[in-house]
Every structure is written in C-alpha cells, then in structure tokens.
C-alpha cells in the first residue's frame, strides 16, 4: 500500500535542510527562507545568532494573513516568539507555532500535503 501523500506538482516541499541551507522543490536556498505552497523566498531573519529582528517579524506578519497556520523554525533549538508578535499573528486569523527548524520542516510538509494554507518561516541550521 502506497502511503506517500499526494503533493500538487508546483507545491513547494522541503526536501533537505542543514549546513546553513535548504533544498526546496529541487532548488537550494542559503540562509533563512519563507515557504508557502506556491513560493519560497529568502528571509533576512536573524540579528547575530540569537534574536529575530523586528523587521523579520514584520515581514512574516505581512504574509501571515493569507494563511491559517504560521510555523516558525527557530534554528537548532526552540526559541520562544515574542508575545506581541504571537498576538499580532493571531489577530490576523492565523495560528502561530514555534519549534526547532527540523520539526518545522517536517510539520510544514505534512500540513502542505494536506492542502492547508501554511506559511513556514525557517531559520537555517
């Protein structure tokens, strides 16, 4: 029995991550990215190696309203998102969840394959 989920041809799927890069639908991206089922774009997310910048959070919030779920991959370890940012995303009608980047990649792929409107903001590891 084949249990491989059916993924639309043009859908962006995270295939690999690590070494500071991602392979998404056959294309390599260095550094952080924003991924939806229809596109992947570079994301200038970090200030140093610790903190998400206000600009990065604003860029993410600008895209969040078109999605029902926002997943933030916070790097090699879980990082709590600022309360004001979480409230802002929720006010746009989307749920937001932070997790380490590996878990975020896997979760994004599952939700995308289910046809959910999901946005993944992934910090490279």
How does the SSE layout of this entry go?
Elements (H helix, E strand, L loop, with lengths): L13 E5 L2 E4 L2 E4 L2 E3 L4 E3 L3 E2 L3 E2 L1 H11 L4 E5 L9 H9 L3 E5 L1 H13 L4 E5 L3
Parallel strand pairs: 8-9, 8-10
Antiparallel strand pairs: 1-2, 2-3, 4-5, 4-10, 6-7
General description of the model:
The protein has a single domain (31-122), classed as Hypothetical Protein Mth938, Chain: A. It is 26% helix and 30% strand. It has helices spanning 54-64, 83-91, 101-113, and strands spanning 14-18, 21-24, 27-30, 33-35, 40-42, 46-47, 51-52, 69-73, 95-99, 118-122. The longest helix has 13 residues, at 101-113. The termini are far apart.
Mean pLDDT: 87
Q: What is the H/E order?
A: EEEEEEEHEHEHE
Biggest beta-sheet profile: 5 strands, mixed
Distance between the termini: 34 Å
What coarse outline follows from CA principal-axis ratios? globular
- Individual helix count: 3
- Total number of β-strand segments? 10
Write a concise synopsis of the structure shown.
With 125 residues, this protein is of the alpha+beta class. It has helices at residues 54-64, 83-91, 101-113; strands spanning 14-18, 21-24, 27-30, 33-35, 40-42, 46-47, 51-52, 69-73, 95-99, 118-122. The chain is built from 3 helices and 10 strands.
Highlighted features:
125 residues; single chain; globular; 10 strands; five-stranded mixed sheet; Hypothetical Protein Mth938, Chain: A; three-stranded antiparallel sheet; 3 helices; alpha+beta
């Amino acid at each position: 029995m084949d249990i491989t989920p059916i993924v639309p041809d043009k859908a962006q799927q995270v295939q690999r991550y690590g070494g500071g890069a991602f392979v998404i639908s056959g294309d390599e991206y260095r550094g952080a990215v924003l991924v939806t089922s229809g596109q992947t774009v570079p994301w200038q997310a970090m200030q140093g190696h610790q903190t998400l910048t206000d600009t990065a959070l604003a860029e993410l919030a600008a895209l969040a309203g078109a999605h029902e779920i926002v997943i933030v991959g916070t790097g090699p370890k879980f990082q709590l998102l600022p309360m004001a940012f979480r409230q802002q995303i929720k006010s746009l009608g989307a749920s937001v969840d932070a997790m380490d980047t590996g878990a975020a990649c896997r979760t994004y792929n599952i939700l995308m394959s289910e046809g959910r409107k999901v946005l993944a903001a992934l910090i490279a590891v």
